[in-house]
Amino acid sequence: MTGLLVFLGGLSGALGVGLSAVAAHYPGGNNLSTAAEFLLLHGPAFFALAALAKTGALPRWSLAAGTLVLVAGLCLFSGDLARRVFAGERLF
Q1: How many whole angstroms separate alpha carbon 46 and alpha carbon 6?
Q2: Contact of 35 with 81, CB cutoff 8 Å
Q3: How far separated are the first and last CA of the chain, in Å rounded?
Q4: Each residue of 9-55: pLDDT tens digit?
Q5: Fewer CB within 10 A of the terminal residue: the chain, N end or C end?
Q6: What pTM did the predictor assign?
């Protein structure tokens, strides 16, 4: 579980940096900037969950639930904002 959380934290940070770079040069970058900020801010949250998993401070089910909520929220919110810019339509 710890390895997955570290991977998700790194992926979230990398996608946030990449999306920030695209937002600086792409028309309609405001939505992309917001999506990038959320990705960048959730990276440390994944690392914090990984640290908690390593110490055993939380039950496994709560770590799994926290991970699922973070991943679903990022995919739905950041994905919706990116789709609005790149595809011109909303997810919902």
Answers
A1: 7
A2: yes
A3: 31
A4: 999 999 999 989 988 888 877 888 888 999 999 999 999 989 988 88
A5: C
A6: 0.83
